[in-house]
Specification:
heterodimer; A: 218 residues; mainly alpha; 81% helix; 0% strand; B: 248 residues; alpha+beta; Ubiquitin-like (UB roll); Fumarate Reductase Iron-sulfur Protein, Chain B, domain 2; 5-stranded mixed β-sheet; two-stranded antiparallel ribbon; transmembrane (chain A); Cytochrome_b-558 (chain A)
């Protein structure tokens, strides 16, 4: 039972769910980037993802469970960690010994959670309604046009870009930290940290590029 | 050197404490931080006031008794030193220095700047030892060959003095660095492998029971540790724990 409740088990659970989401993010980015390269490819990939049985009824529920688990566990850990120091310091210089990103994962995580709410409102719910509530003829070419419409608003584009900055900060600490949590700290860790930090910048920057590109190409 | 000290004063574990301001003069850069507090206490005693209570023992950085959160950092602004090794030359004339006890639910304040760190002892008692056969056929430790790297890593982990700076520095008041150092120093040696499974499970269980927070890998503990205990020890403990849990 200790394996489920101990502090180390919780760390490992956070790390594993985080790594799963990192892999999902790369897949999401690759498909999104095709909207910049070739709208037809984007349409066919979107249609495949939206109508493939394995993606829709196996991968998607696993992903949603993974997201919920990561957020719930993160909040549980934050509450427990705050209770471990009931009287706070009058003077505390966290900047002298750790990065802002590492100390404020709950803030970057909360922004990402809020962003996911907006993202689901923009794409996931309308898609579910379109497919399963309303009856429409199958249209394999609608995805790019719908995507462009979403990024017409400068406010929405701005909110997306801001969220991606927070995503970069979350990944900057979280991705490399997940390996430490699982006990991976050796001579290869420095190189691995380099890769994780490159990923933490590259993927969110790519998402920002896509959002701005779509906004400017109306 | 003229300084303004803001020191946490608390009559006992149940009383509500507060920061009190004490101006102090005539402090030399070559004095240690604790010597500066000795000067203050002498002045307070001469004035008939209650001296500031703080922990200290060896005053040479090896016992782990001294603590103090100084200007927002455990053991003050210098690196790889304990409070007793911290020199006043690290501060400037006219500075204000805020001095607080180490803060954690598992380190309750006893009085002023003294906290109860017996939670660390209970973690040690849960498994931080090697059982020795004393029936007359004890094997000489030197008769068992130990890989040089393992011996060095074990020794480095064993240099942890258990001062609690890792807990004090961590935003989560986590004791992972301390516990992992104590787990590692035995896990790396052949003599420690016999009890490896139960050791890590018991020590981590005790650590959690004491109310320390979870490690979120900020690395603050490693930076503030006066002995430079590495985060590699936490990774090793995580591996040891996972492997012990799977063994059951």
């Amino acid at each position: 039972m200790a394996i489920l409740t101990s502090s180390i088990a919780r760390k490992v659970a956070m790390a594993l769910s985080g790594l799963f989401l990192v892999i999902f993010l790369a897949q999401h980015f690759i498909i999104n980037f095709t909207s910049v390269l070739d709208p037809e490819t984007f349409n066919s990939l979107s249609h495949f993802m939206g109508h493939n049985f394995v993606v829709q009824f196996i991968a998607q529920p696993i992903l949603i469970i993974g997201v919920i688990f990561h957020f719930v566990m993160g909040i549980i850990l934050e509450i427990r960690n705050r209770s471990a120091r009931q009287i706070s310091y009058k003077s505390y210089k966290g900047n002298r010994n750790s990065s802002w990103a590492s100390r404020n994962m709950i803030i970057s995580g909360a922004v990402i959670l809020a962003f996911l709410g907006l993202h689901f409102y923009d794409f996931w719910f309308p898609e579910i309604v379109h497919k399963y509530v309303e009856s429409h003829p199958v249209d394999e070419t609608r995805y790019y046009t719908e995507l462009l419409q979403k990024f017409e608003s400068p406010v929405r584009t701005g909110l997306y870009c801001l969220s991606f900055v927070l995503l970069a900060l979350h990944l900057w600490h979280g991705f490399s930290s997940s390996f430490q949590s699982m006990g991976w700290n050796n001579k290869y860790s420095k190189a691995l940290r380099g890769f994780t930090q490159f990923y933490a910048i590259f993927i969110p920057l790519g998402f920002i590029f896509i959002a701005i590109y779509l906004h400017l190409n109306q | 050197m003229k300084l303004t000290l803001k020191i946490w004063r608390q009559k006992n574990s149940k009383a509500k404490g507060e920061l009190k301001t004490y101006p102090i003069d005539g402090i030399e850069g070559d004095m240690s931080f604790l010597e500066m507090l000795d000067v203050l206490n002498e002045e307070l005693i001469n004035k008939g006031e209650e001296p500031v209570v703080f922990d200290h023992d060896c005053r040479e950085g090896i016992c782990g008794a001294c603590s103090l959160q100084i200007n927002g950092e455990p053991h003050g602004p210098d690196r790889l030193v304990t409070t007793c090794q911290l020199h006043m030359r690290m501060f400037n004339d006219g500075d204000t220095i805020v001095i607080e006890p180490f803060r954690a639910k598992a380190f309750p304040v006893i009085k002023d700047l003294v906290v109860d760190r017996t939670s660390f002892e209970r973690i040690q008692q849960a498994g931080g030892y090697v059982s020795v056969n004393t029936s007359g056929n004890t094997i000489d430790a030197n008769a068992i060959p130990v890989n040089k790297q393992d011996a060095d890593d074990s020794f480095n982990a064993a240099t942890c003095i258990g001062c609690g700076a890792c807990v004090a520095a961590c935003k989560n008041a986590s004791a992972m660095l301390f516990t992992s150092a104590k787990v590692s120093q035995f896990a790396l040696l052949p003599q420690g492998k016999v009890e490896a499974t139960e050791r890590v499970l018991n020590m981590v269980a005790q650590m959690d029971k004491e109310g320390f927070g979870n490690c979120t890998n900020t690395g603050a503990c490693e930076i503030e540790c006066p002995k430079g205990i590495s985060l590699e020890n936490i990774a090793r403990m995580n591996r040891e724990y996972l492997s012990a849990s799977l063994k059951g």
